[in-house]
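Intended use. Records such as the Ferredoxin-type protein NapF entry shown here are meant for training and evaluating sequence-to-structure methods. They are not intended to support clinical decisions.
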Amino acid sequence: MVDIAKRRLFRRKAIDPTQIRLPWVNNLEQFTDLCTRCGKCEEVCETEIIHKGDGGYPAIDFAVDECTFCYKCAEICPEPIFNGIKTQPWNAKAVINDTCLAHNNVECRSCGDSCETMAITFKLRAGGVALPQLELADCNGCGACVSPCPTSSISVSNV
């Protein structure tokens, strides 16, 4: 008699396709096929945002810090999974949800202060605090706005 449950051992572990992977990796299938999960990218990350994600594959944790797009993770990788440095790193953009302090009439501009590209500005409004305005065209998805947010109201996701 064959134990069907044991066959799952040979299937590729499903990984979350919405989880932000490394910059310059656009093909998730190629990434999971070629990445050996050696951890070299984690070791060279200057902001230490690369950690083991689903299935042991490297993923980004913006709660720690931002991506500086230094390209060290791509340079150290022994596998051909990265695009060239002159290409767009990823299609990730910041998202601000309704738990934002400003949306709850509490003055806070920590995300705008940390945004180098000035993608987050604040629109004044009568009788309330200024609300964050996110200009997606200016957002590079670096995640600099995520960790300073006191209410964890900002995330970065693929668009």
